[in-house]
Amino acid sequence: MWTFIVSGALYLVGVAVILVIKPSIMFTPDGNWKEFGIGQSEARYTTFPFWLFCLLWAVASYVIVLLTLPLLIDTEPQDSNTYTEVYTRNKKNRSKRVVEESDLVFDDEVEPVKTLPKGYYVLNKKASRLAGTPKYVFIAEEP
């Protein structure tokens, strides 16, 4: 989100500077915009009009901020105690609880998944609704 806000501010500053300076490549001596045209009178036409500058400056300001913002903002946590906020959602209410990093389970700590037996797994809608997570019923043919 900050990338868009900062790049938008940089874009507006750049456009404001061009409108104040009014370079001769984009504006006539009396301050009007030159039209886009190639091979015509340079007093009234230009190959780099103001609208083209606006498009290119929008892309350039976004790329500038995208490359420099991570260097300016510290993304490392400030203290060694890392906490994660876990949101649980019920039908009736939402609650928030704080979990320490030691309570979290990472992929390398999880047991490998066992191969399920061959057969059909049918979604149990009533149990899924009550539990809040999908529950399946296993249906197999007799050997």
Q: How would you describe this protein?
A:
The chain has a domain at 2-72. It has 143 residues and is of the alpha+beta class. It is elongated. The longest helix is centred in the middle third of the chain and has 23 residues, at 50-72. The protein has helices spanning 2-21, 50-72, 125-131; strands spanning 35-36, 45-46, 83-89, 94-100, 120-123, 136-139.
Alpha-carbon distance between the termini? 58 Å
Q: How large is the share of residues in beta strands?
A: 15-25%
Order of helices and strands: HEEHEEEHE
List the quaternary state of the chains: single chain
Secondary structure tally, helices: 3
Which of globular, elongated, flat, extended, rod-shaped describes the shape?
elongated
**Overall average residue pLDDT:** 78
Give the structural class: alpha+beta
Q: How many DSSP-defined strands?
A: 6
Q: Rg to the nearest angstrom?
A: 30 Å
Low-confidence stretches: 79-92
Largest sheet: 2 strands, parallel
Biggest sheet, spatial arrangement of strands: 1-2
Q: Tell me roughly what share of residues is in helical segments.
A: 25-40%
What keyword list fits this structure?
143 residues, alpha+beta, two-stranded parallel ribbon
What is the structure about, briefly put?
By secondary structure, the protein is an alpha+beta fold.
Topology:
Elements (H helix, E strand, L loop, with lengths): L1 H20 L13 E2 L8 E2 L3 H23 L10 E7 L4 E7 L19 E4 L1 H7 L4 E4 L4
Parallel strand pairs: 1-2
Antiparallel strand pairs: 3-4, 5-6
